[in-house]
Amino acid sequence: MTKIAFITGITGQDGSYLTELLLGQGYDVHGAVRRTSSLERSRLAHLYADATIYNRRLFLHYADLDDPTTLRRVLFKVKPQELYHLAGQSHVGLSFEIPETTCEFTAMGTLRLLEILRDLPDPPRFFHAASSELFGRPSQVPQTETTPFAPINPYGCAKAFATQMVRIYRETHGLFAVNGILFNHESPRRGENFVTRKICRAAAAIKKGLQNELTLGDTRAQRDWGHARDYVRGMWLSLQHATPDDYLFATGKLHSVQDVIETAFAALALDWRNHVKFDAHFLRPAEPLQLVGDASKARTVLGWSPQTPFTALIQEMTRAELDTLA
Ligand code: NAP
Ligand code: F7E
User: Fold this and answer.
1) CA-CA distance, 253 to 264, in Å (whole number)?
2) Do residues 54 and 126 both lie within one domain?
3) 214 and 177, same structural domain?
4) CA of 124 to the centre of ligand 2 (A)
5) Number of folded domains in the chain?
């Protein structure tokens, strides 16, 4: 029988890659979308355009995270076997500007979904997209699934609430509920205001003569960056295991924003020194330190490992921007 999956956040970077993976595995995929003034959902456009997929194996339902009545109705109707919960306000810097929205969607939105699952006669396996931002200023480097939470921004705090709730619902209500503690993962489909995409896009625009300057905040900041396609495979693997648990997904390698700049500009034979400027507007009130993950558990238990090294990731993103601008 065909398996049915449901994705919140299907229009996002990860939602689009996960949809492709699940369709490739033979699933019917349902997703929750928000009402917006434009119907353009660019990351799914290629799937809409395929008459053998859209409304045959891929179905979209209007449902916001702050509308539990609708979510409940849709989930009772669709009856998914797997639910991937990816929706939320995902920008850390913006979470300082809109902390209430961030917590409403990311923290309370997750709790509302867990409450609905409790009432379903046959609850689906549930994946929650947790984050390295749980660890903030961590007491251990690298971090593992057991590193204590120490979030330092509203986004991390909302994820910590949601992650702990997932553990509680797994342990006390017996739900098959999994936290995937995801470190930064990027792709050509990354939102334009995240630093890797911003840099790769600017480098391509400079190469094409469409732009001359790139303004950035803290270029010494470091992250553990992988490819989104690898991380959605981890999400799927974590729901195929016999028992529910928490898994950390990371490359284990730290790079700086400066490394992203140098890799992207070098890919286009540009000298970054002629173009990159500092703008204090992009500094954040607090920066996490040394967020780098040890994914040994995912490797041993799920057979997961990241396939795309940092340089290949940034080169792919830069080339994709150049093709888009062509
Ligand atoms: P993204 O590109 O920003 O996508 C977020 C998705 O959530 C979009 O589909 C968005 O819909 C939807 N959404 C936001 N608020 C919603 C609401 N109130 N109701 C319904 N849908 C809503 O994020 P991503 O990079 O794919 O990340 C997926 C998840 O993983 C997020 O929860 C993020 O916090 C988490 N995560 C990501 C990373 C990373 O490095 N990418 C790392 C750790 C954790 P619209 O298209 O309508 O805006
Ligand atoms: O920032 C610095 C910035 O916004 C990375 C989300 O997916 O990963 C992501 O959050 C670093 C930070 O990602 C600019 O200060 C410098 O140190 O690309 P980012 P993030 O904050 O790490 C985590 C794991 C998530 O869970 C989140 O959902 O880059 N930086 N200059 C800048 N960042 C931005 N955005 N723009 C700049 O101009």
Assistant:
1) 18
2) yes
3) no
4) 32
5) 2
Q: Are residues 172 and 46 in the same domain?
A: yes
Q: What's the CATH code of the domain at 66? A: 3.40.50.720
Residues ≥6 apart with Cβ < 8 Å to 121: none
SS3 for 249? strand
Q: Which residues of the chain have pLDDT under 70?
A: none
| pLDDT of amino acid 170 | 98
Note the pLDDT tens digit of each residue in 68-90.
999 999 999 999 999 999 999 99
- State whether 176 and 278 are in the same domain: no
Ligand 2 pocket, Cβ-based, cut-off 6 angstroms: 90, 92-93, 131-133, 183-184, 193-195, 198, 216-218, 221, 223, 257, 282, 284, 287
- Secondary structure percentages of the chain, helix, strand, coil, to 5: 45, 15, 40
Q: How close is the Cα of 261 to the center of ligand 1, in Å?
A: 25
Name the DSSP class of 149: P
Tokens of 283: 């500094």
Contact yes or no for 230/306 (Cβ under 8 A): yes
Q: Which of 8, 10, 14, 128 to mutate to test the pocket of ligand 1 (most atoms within 8 A of CB)?
A: 14
Q: What is the H or E stretch that residue 86 is in? A: none
Which residues span the domain enclosing 46? 4-186+225-252+295-302
pLDDT at 40: 77
Catalytic residue, candidates 82, 133, 186, 321? 133
Judge if 67 and 123 occupy the same domain: yes
Is there a single domain that holds both residue 35 and residue 74? Answer: yes
Strand 222-223 to 255-256 pairing: antiparallel
**Is this model's pTM higher than 0.85 or not?**
yes
Query: Per residue in 251-301, pLDDT tens?
Result: 999 999 999 999 999 999 999 999 999 999 999 999 999 999 999 999 999
Same domain, 18 and 120: yes
Query: With contact defined as beta carbons under 8 Å apart, do 278 and 324 qualify?
Result: no
Residues 125, 265 share a domain: no
